[in-house]
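Researcher: Let's try something more involved. This one mixes different molecule types, so please make sure each is placed in the same coordinate frame as the others.
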Amino acid sequence: MSGNMNLTLKVWRQKNASDTGRIETYPAKNISPDMSFLEMLDVVNEDLIKEGKDPIAFDHDCREGICGMCSMYINGRAHGPNKGVTACQLHMRSFKNGDTIIIEPWRAAAFPVLRDLIVDRTALEKIQQAGGFVSVNTGSAPDANAIPVPKWNADEAFNAAACIGCGACVAACKNSSAMLFMSAKVSQYALLPQGKAEAKMRVTNMLKVHDEQGFGACTNTEACEAECPKGISVSNIARMNREYAAAMLAGE
Amino acid sequence: MSKFFEFLNSSVGRKWLMAFTGLFLCLFVLVHMSGNLQLFKNDGGKAFNQYAVFMTTFPLIKVVSYVNYLLILVHALNGFYLVNKNRQARPVKYAGAKSDASASWSSRNMGLLGTVLLVFIVIHMGHFWREFHFVPMEAKQYITKIGEIPTEGTPFDTVITIQAKDFKEPRHYTINQQDMSGRMATYEVVELKDLYGEVAEAFKSPLYVAFYVLAMIALSYHLAHGFQSAFQTFGIRSKTYAPIIKGLGNLLFAIIIPALFAAMPLYFLFIKH
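Model: All components are placed in one shared frame. Result:
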């Protein structure tokens, strides 16, 4: 087709967790601007397989922007140049014919690279398991008027709960801090009556695990908010800072 | 108490410590700048030299100044600790990072800016603070005729230089002697270490002035991020106040204070001689 593009990819290749890894260059030929970024990688992989080479390994699942698997640092930005999208929702029309695209995995001590562009994000699960839940069965959905929740709280909790745990905040942060992720989880419960009871325990335990996993501290650069595909606000980090200080410095 | 130390050692607690000490230091630069505005007074340095004595002898100020030195150290050491810890969180760097697309330069370079400021503080204190406290310094005797409104043309203020070896401590007394017309008059005499003269002398050097101006540019960028960031760390953030804190912070701490500070060496270099 006439609008199709030829691109050069510089991709991080790493055989396994213990390999040192390197950047390798591949051509991406005849790429339609309507393809998603992952579909472009599929095309490149087809060519690699035909040439008898190892295809580029990358994580992907839903391909509709809600699973948070496609952890890719594209041209120096988490999930590429567009705001509010994951790599699967980044379309090739965002690039120009002849462009060189650098593709790297998330970089963080807490996210070891397993292969090529795939990182192990278990560290985020560990934070979640440390307190990102309500530990008693709160039953099925109650009547709307049984537990009063102000509209503002419901909205804020919902916005925080939109976090898909993709790790773009960690990838974009100069300190590889998972504060935005953690604060979204802390907020979504702290704002609602069901979660409030365990709020102090939750934030204390989650932050302890966050630090143990080797994530950095927050410098308030707000790069996480700028790169978050779900638009999670750093006001959640402010809330978490309050919650944590209250839990540690006040009360028993 | 162990909970308090656990808090201080956590990633959030360390930021609280950074924010607390940082805001205290913001207050300090505000006071320091306001006091130093007396350098602009055209009085042979009397007001500034008096102010220097007050700041180094008034007990409350002395206590606060030692707290201030301590907090500078805590802020710097904790800053180095955090920079190092945060670097460890990303052992492998990105090949093609476009960091400026998502975060401001100053927010990403607080460690660098802070280091420039620490070097500045060491040199600044090693010069004026050390010399004022420990090195014999030329002094000035300010003589003012009191009890009478001076008429135009009469010498009102006389300034006499006292050699460093002849000066013991600041003095303030009155003398009675004949004035120029032969009548008896009362004069107020103030003898002070001439820190003003030291400042004026130091800022004759364009290189030294350039270093001070550069440090104030670093201060501007450091506080452009630092002041408002402290509030975020404390969790003080609302849609109403965030723009005020950011606006006030940038206007006062990133523009007005560094600009007035930088104007002092420039004033001595270009206007005072």
